[in-house]
Amino acid sequence: VQLQASGGGLVQAGDSLRLSCAASGRILSGYTMGWFRQAPGKEREFVAAISGTGYTNYANSVKGRTTISRDNAKNTVYLQMDNLKPEDTAVYYCASRMYSTFSKTVNDYNYWGQGTLVTVSS
Fold this sequence. Notes:
The strands form 2 sheets. Strands 2, 4, 5, 6, 9, 10 and 11 form a 7-stranded mixed sheet that branches. A 4-stranded antiparallel sheet has the order 1-3-8-7, with no helix packed on it. By secondary structure, it is an all-beta fold. It has no helices and 11 strands. The chain is 0% helix and 50% strand.
């Protein structure tokens, strides 16, 4: 299983970005997919996840500004981020969990993409 994240870049505060995560290999539609981020000097933290049944959950820091979605036919997960803030600056990672149940815990995810950098200037 390989995950390829893309869509990061340098934007200004208030702008929007859509990150994509394309999966290859054996990714079943029932798997939970998540996005995490890691800012310099900080631990990797949960951003959003979507379960195999379509249940979504968001970190409080991004709730109301972020939407996670998935296209099972394309084996792709998206993270739409609006009204970006400088504190959203981080490397964003997509991850896959081999269960349909939702989790916010890094260690519960089995496969990870390489990360895509999002930089938000003030």
